[in-house]
Amino acid sequence: MSLRGKTAIAGLGQTKQGKVYDRTYMGFAVEAVELALADAGLERTDLDGLLLNPGLAWGTAAMGSFMLQQALGLRDLKLSATMNLGGATAGAMIQHAALAIAAGMCTTVACVFSDRPLKGPDEQKQKTGSAASYAFARGLDAAYGQFGINAMYALVARRHMHAYGTTQDHLGAVAVTQRRWANMNPAAQLKDVPLTLADYHASRWVVEPFHMLDCCLVSNGGVAVIVTSAERARTLRKPPVYLWGMGQGHPGGEPAETLASGAPIASKIAFDMARIRTPDIDVCELYDCYTFTVLVTLEDYGFCAKGEAGPFVAEGHTAPGGSLPVNTGGGQLSSSYMWGMTPIAEGIVQARGEGGERQAPKHDVVLVSGNGGLLSTHTTLVLSPLPS
Amino acid sequence: MSRDTPPARPLPEGDPALAPFFAAAKERRLVVQRCARCGALRFPPRELCTSCLATEVEWADVSGRGEIFSFNVMHQVYHPAFATEVPYAVVVVKLVEGPKMISNLVDCPVDEIRIGMPVEVVFETMTDTITLPKFRRV
Questions:
Q1: Domain containing A102 — which CATH number?
Q2: Has residue A157 been placed in a domain?
Q3: pLDDT at B14
Q4: Domain-located, residue A23
């Protein structure tokens, strides 16, 4: 049984994102669902499934989706889960929603992410803001000064540079290219901040080989996506964005050895389901926790050979006007960091043709990736405005 | 202690999983875990062998020789103990026996560190109970 085109995304809700302090993490989640329902032309009572990817601010909150259900006043849900695959969670939520709908367990599922890691200027300063939120360390690592996910990815990126000749200019090309896209996205946090390669090199180091501009933003906000059957989506307010294919890949082992993500596994399943191959893809929205992640992901989906993504980006193929638009909203590097929801939301915008100045000219086949941990988890979605 | 003394490094004092590692380090020996069933070496310590899932474990001496597998250079200060040390390098040493260790390289400017550089273990006494294995160029 193929699920190609059986389900669709019917609604997208995005709160204000970035240095926004007027809601709690729960408030952002509720607002995102309200916006997604309005986008789809649905009522709260139409929802019978709720999946939640709680961000860092949810902390130890147990039963997260249950709490969000209460906050939203939802009754008689038939699907509920709090999920965590890091940055691959959002893609996985869409997939679980589609599977449950196709299996007849439920009809209309809200997939929700929210987070509030940034503290407002009037709030008590706590060691939970921004970089500190991601600076966890295991005991022995901390004794050697190895702190946080930036430092872990830096070790993998250095191996990629050693193995393939990837350069600092290549990493910088990703940052500069995505900023050009962000400059055309009215919602991007860095819309009005131009960026040159010289600016990139001048930006402060966080942990070599990563400048600050190699690392994603940290943002407050929420995103919700409504998934329903293709039949139902066709009766709703917005044109459906069909789920043509989906897959997951979680490689295990040591990414510093393999220099690969889970995309080779996930894409095989998703592309077979979608009946596409890599050259059929018109637009990419790739998970970009770091500039480096974009390079690895481009290679792992076969847009270029292993080790050649740096030159591929530096030559301008992924930039506005290039042959393969990538991260057309500016991504997590230049627009907003909503974990895996950032690439999904922009994928929906592009598939619908709602990208305005930044709209990719051809958008029949949109690839969206999610990536979590240290290249540990991966999801692939193939989206299309066409039913088949 | 003078006011100018930086705060102490965060050390995993009293972590039972690391006790044999630090006991050996105090004696200037570098040890890693060895599965008592299949013989696979592993580090950092884990409750189970990821090769055969056995829980039986022993600690085995290793040569202390290896090479730089990867490294980063930390500029951002995440703990006040490192405020006076940035920029400093964190290295991954691949031991000749196979396991990898996060560590620091002593007596080597950060811009001279290269992947593949051969290194050997040295020991730095931090407290009465904690001696940190570090590495130097050979």
A1: 3.40.47.10
A2: no
A3: 85
A4: yes
Q: Following DSSP, what letter does each residue of A199-248 receive, concatenated?
A: HHHHSPEEEETEEGGGB----BEEEEEEEEEHHHHTTSSSPPEEEEEEEE
Contact at CB, A145 and B11, closer than 8 angstroms: no
Residue A21 lies in a domain: yes
- Domain of A40 in residue numbering reads as 7-121+218-233
Give pTM, 2 decimals. 0.95
The verdict on a CB contact (< 8 Å) between A139 and B130 is: no
pLDDT (mean) for B89-99: 98
Interface of B with A (CB under 8 A): 9-12, 15, 18, 44, 69-76, 78-79, 82, 85, 87-88, 90, 92, 102-104, 115, 126, 130, 132
Question: How far from each other are the two terminal CA atoms of chain B, in whole angstroms?
Answer: 36
* Partners of residue B9 in chain A, C-beta under 8 Å: 142-143, 145
Whole-number average pLDDT of chain B: 94
Helices and strands of chain A, counted as H and E runs: 15, 11
Number of independent structural domains in chain A: 1
Instruction: Locate the domains of chain B by residue range.
Output: 16-137
Which pLDDT tens digit goes with each residue over A151-178? 999 999 999 999 999 999 999 999 999 9
A144 with B90: Cβ contact below 8 A: yes
